[in-house]
# Entry
Amino acid sequence: MSILILAIAYPAAIAVLFYLAFLRPVQQQQKRQRQELASLQVGDEVLTQGGLIATIKEVRTPEEPGPTELILDLGGLEVRAVATAIVQRLRAVAESEPVAAERTRG
# Structure
């Protein structure tokens, strides 16, 4: 009887450890990335998967299910991109405003 319990408990324990060690961290990172993409705002400075640093000029959320589209300003050149092409936010709107104010003063 105890061998049967061990035969069932051992694989179950390995499955739980596998979940905690490998799957859960990936799920948490994906959740953080989804939250980061959902919080993008006009004026944020972002890094794209292609290595381009751009400023978000417009966020277009579709009425029907589909990818969120961004209009990015690459220093005079406007490009369209899907929100999932954003790797990270470099500077948020609130952080970039004081920098712009300092530039106009000095």
In short: The domain at 41-106 is CATH 2.30.30.30 (SH3 type barrels.). Residues 99-106 have pLDDT under 50 and may be disordered. The longest strand covers residues 53-60.
